Amino acid sequence: MDKFNKPYDPKETEEKIYKIWEKSGYFNPDNLPVAKPKNSKTKKIKNFCIIMPPPNANGSLHLGHALMLALEDIMIRYKRMSGFKTLWLPGADHAGFETQVVYEKKLEKEGRSRFQISREQLWQEIWDFTQANKATMENQIRRLGASCDWSREKFTLDNDIISKTQDTFIQMYDEGLVYRGKRLVNWCIKHQTGLSDLEVKHEERKDPLYYIKYGPITLATVRLETKFGDTAIAVHPKDERYKKFVGKEIEIETLIGKTKIKVIADNAVDPDFGTGAVKVTPAHDPTDFEIWQRHKDEISAPIEVIDQFGKMNLIEHFPNNEEVKKYHGLKILEARKIIAEEMEKRGLLFKVDNEYKHNVGLCYKCSNILEPRLMPQWFVKMEPLAKEAVNAVKKNEIKFIPERFKKIYFHWLKNIRDWNISRQIVWGIQIPAWFCENCNEAVVSKKKPLECKKCRHKDFYQDPDVFDTWFSSGQWPFFVLGYPDAKNYKNFYPTSVMETGWDILFFWVARMIMLGLYKTKKAPFQYVYLHGLVRDQDKKKMSKSKGNVIDPLGIVNEYGADALRMALIIGNTPGNDPVFSEDKVRGYRNFANKIWQATRFILINSEDFNENIKPKFSALDKKRFKELADLKKEITKLMESYKFYTAAEKLYHYFWHTFADKIIEENKSRLNGENKNDRAAAQALLVTIFNDLIKMLHPFMPFITEEIYGHLSIKDKPRRRGVGAPTEASEKLLIIEKW
RNA sequence: GCGCCUUUAGCUCAGUGGUAGAGCGUUCGAUUCACAUUCGAAAGGCCGUAGGUUCGAUCCCUACAAGGCGCACCA
After folding, report:
1. pTM greater than the 0.90 cutoff
2. Which of A363, A486, A504, A727 is the S-S candidate for A188 at Cβ 3.0 to 4.6 Å?
């Protein structure tokens, strides 16, 4: 009771309560006191499962995580109280490239570089780094009140996950869904790895557009430096201006001598752009690469003139050519400038358009221009997978909240291209493939092959590349449940809800659907709930470089997790980016105290309660009961339709402005009056209402409600018998009370 | 280029085919009685613009405008 003599202090309560919950074992569905089915034939045990999107183990939690945890915890707690066997399975993500980038920055600060560290040592260092982060994050998740089952926690580099991921790759290879192809990949010269198309961000740039003379033809290009790799000139087939040249070789003066080059016709050329003629450089441009694929018989193989570091590499292709040395080894932009000068000198530069704007692809991490580079990589054939993924959603096997993301999802899948899953980094799951040291034949296998089938050679080396991290996390929902034969998998798969940010709809959600359907023949979840990105008060994205990142734990320390959760939930509809403000949190901290003070009032006024007096409810009491019952129906409906933002707001409003401001106030006179009967009735009324309200508030504000429940259930045990409350109340925790 | 979204009170956002809602903020007032992390009251909106459907539109349809975003091989 002394506790109630001061404002509510979350610090005194929250960590203590979390320990009680953890000790109770109720986070684990196996320990839940699920009502025995009355009729075992018709009534099945109801399961509800959410796989927590594993936070990246390369830093600490941000507000987006806090939002994710709040939403999922609300769903889980509501379902748990509604009698479901609830499993919320936590995890942590090694986050491949993301983590390696973070770690490389750390190395840079220390004056080191990953290219000077052995593979084994780098792996070990990043391993230690992620393990430390993981431990921190687990505690942060606890501080936010997440009622997840820690006994089932998984890490994306657990041995079974690694092994199963490799199995899938092998299976897909055997079934022709994975292939090794030498194609243009998005190469980052800083990070020295290829990236998937999703990891490319496009930005508009203004670059000079050079009009240059290739013999009788003038053509326009930005990328002058690739001219040494030209293998053709292309024009549109219907372009009258160039018809006479098509199929013929024309002599052109390059800067390193004279050569002949063929003119070809291809529909990819836009006759209205520039002069309607383009130079074709298949080794350094995706469009040109595709043109080459269509004209393989007519023109020579691609010539790579830029190396992996973004420098001119010419000597290899043009040995014994003195002129070449002038450009060899130059960086792209330097080369471009010098070539332009040289061409101008020789009268080969017709004009320069300095206002030309176009889109360039950048590395989404370092914003360096990505260099299209011709190299062999492992690709996943997307079309068959995408088709199934579209069908599953069309057939409503998976529903999106909000629904509009369906359209975006379809749009993406319709235009999908094959997925490059090779990464030239160490931090990840190594690809189970081997190359013959003699003939370079690739063998897909976990174990080192004994002999090359092609050349009988016996020495192999393993592909040093690792998987795109999303290739393994795309299989997370069923791997963590112990696919294919574990009990967890049988009980909880397909899972109920996948709740995550809309920003990873393609990266993760779509891949989970595709790979889930492929491996398990089932959609991995029934609902996709997509939350928005938490923004600062100026609606800006929070990022370390902007310095506007808010540490959720700082907020928790100051105002309590309950207040933070309410601030994140209320006014936040799915799919829309919420704006975060500390004022809002302060408001809900005040609300927590309001709940606290109302409790105090009730406890004070029921101290000398006489349990022999049966409550006689007044007409007004009954009216209030009716209102409460209506509210409960309404809230339940909102919970079922995933409108947590409205449910929380209504509860807030009812508690404060109806229960506290009206009901308590209108009962004050009764409590202070002479009529004992009336007094008893009033108290029973208050307690009953109270019992319902803290139950409904519990999913949203789990800590304070559990704390109060502890005080109420001990104190009010005798009286609650009269109003049909559960027995053994003092033994019970609110977390498993009936909704 | 293809596509998605937004536009409602000063701010952040809900919402419904039948004369507009919340939180915060603002203004005025109260207050030894659970709570100043309080209570009561008030001000404040032609629900982006123009058409259409309808007995009736903020809500449905069309166009337009402004803003945001996603996808995309135009050199």
Report:
1. yes
2. A363
